[in-house]
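Q: I'm teaching a short session on how sequence maps to structure, and I want students to see two examples side by side rather than one. Could you give me a first protein with its sequence written out and its structure tokens following it? Keep the formatting plain so it prints cleanly on a handout.
A: Of course. Example one:
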Amino acid sequence: MAQLGLLAEMKGLRLISTNHHEEIHVFADGLCMRQLLLNLIYNGIKYTEPGGSIQVALENPPRRPPRARIRGSLCEDYCL
């Protein structure tokens, strides 16, 4: 994640991570999940315009499966 943060910074983006302190357990292949999340974050960096942000959040809603949410935004000046 630190390397992606540097890549985002070089492009003029903010990489925001939330809920990273909460433990969430998922029954899945750890390496595949890591690669999937890294690819999604990388694509967010690649396709978000300079001045925007990428937000990564891990969520564990009650009575629902855990999920990762990755959002890219345009520069706040241009968002509606």
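Q: Perfect. Now a second example for contrast.
A: Example two:
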Amino acid sequence: MALLQIKIDDDLKARASLLFKELGIDFSTAVRLFLNESLKEGGIPFKIGYGEEKSKSNDILKSGYITSFLNGNYKMTLKEINEEIRLAREGRMAREAKEQEANNKNQ
């Protein structure tokens, strides 16, 4: 495993460390997340520009990336992801059918 040393402003490190702690990750994990996402995206994994508004969907998406990384799901192929979605939908449809059947019996 390689050791990465970077120089950053003390205040930036303190504020970022606090944020990462609130997210339940350490600084090293956050850097690994950034590097993995950069490789996956083939570039910086977020838009760089002026006057960007924070959107709820971006926050949710970033939170999903962190959860996926921590769970090891970032290694899943598109085929595996689609299969999980298909199984989840089938399960939901089966539950809804049972609920509907129970409601019909009660009427």
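Q: What should students look for in example two?
A: Point them to this: The helical segments are 10-23, 27-41, 56-71, 78-106. Also worth mentioning: Residues 78-106 form the longest helix (29 residues).
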